[in-house]
Amino acid sequence: MESLAYLHTALTYESDEPAPELRPLSDWFPTASSAAWLSAQVLAAALVVSAAGSAMAATGTVQTNGNPLNVRSTPGGPVVSSLPNGARVELTGRKNGNYLELANGTWVSADWVAVGGTSPTQPPSGTDRAVGFVNTAGEPLNVRSAPGGAIVGTLPNGTRVELTGRSSSGFLERTNSTWIDARYVTYSQSPTPSPNPTPNPGTGTGSGTTTSFVRTNGSPLNVRNAPGGAVVGTVANGSRVELTGRRSGEWAQRTNGTWVSSNWLTNSPGTP
């Protein structure tokens, strides 16, 4: 042991290399306030990690009441396609309002997607789902992309509809994210009474409709798209017309949604 110690000491003193120097911390960090600089770097790294974690990709499953789920180009934007109930979806982890981004850049409602084995987000309190039935005068009910928006389809009278419980501007949302006019929907559990229509000349035919006959001076009667609106057709003198019972001034609505002047209608086909 003594010989090894002696040999180490001799090598140390005989080496031509300069002795190592201890450098102060200020040489390693850019400013004198090295502690503050180091804290800032640690905080920045933590924010990067946090941001990456908040937008991690995930897998979800479409869970509706059986209807397809609308896929939109942007959050709340135009519908570009749909996904069947039960479909597996790849998510980016990004969320905007109540919409989730799919891996292909499109968006779906978070209300109908179960992420990571959890149940889909339920609609807010006070918006319980319900079942309703289309109740018109026999005409199909328009289906819209948004409350009062573009018509994307129709539903026959009497059709059963699944509703989310949400309403906006007199329209009800269906579980496939389309909207229908609340005035033409009744509920099996608590039917909404229909308002009494303004009496209209003619003979009752049930369900609030009436039958009248065109009686002019021989000329055809103009048919309009709205009370006093554009002429979209004519009805020959003496023709039988079915009316919904709805009135707007002198105008009476037909069961096909068009309007005619009640000044040229009578109760019977004979001469008044």
Task: Provide a compact summary of the structure.
By secondary structure, this protein is mainly beta. It has helices at 2-14, 34-54, and strands at 58-62, 69-72, 79-83, 88-96, 99-102, 107-109, 113-115, 130-134, 141-144, 151-155, 160-168, 171-174, 179-181, 185-187, 203-206, 209-214, 221-224, 231-235, 240-248, 251-254, 259-261, 265-266.
Tell me what the structure shows.
With 272 residues, this protein is mainly beta. Among the domains are: 58-115, SH3 Domains (SH3 type barrels, Roll), CATH 2.30.30.40; 130-187, SH3 type barrels, CATH 2.30.30; 203-266, SH3 Domains (SH3 type barrels, Roll). The chain is built from 2 helices and 22 strands. The protein has helices spanning 2-14, 34-54; strands spanning 58-62, 69-72, 79-83, 88-96, 99-102, 107-109, 113-115, 130-134, 141-144, 151-155, 160-168, 171-174, 179-181, 185-187, 203-206, 209-214, 221-224, 231-235, 240-248, 251-254, 259-261, 265-266. The strands form 6 sheets. Strands 15, 16, 19, 20, 21 and 22 form a 6-stranded antiparallel sheet that branches. Residues 9-15, 49-54, 121-127 and 189-207 have low confidence and may be disordered.
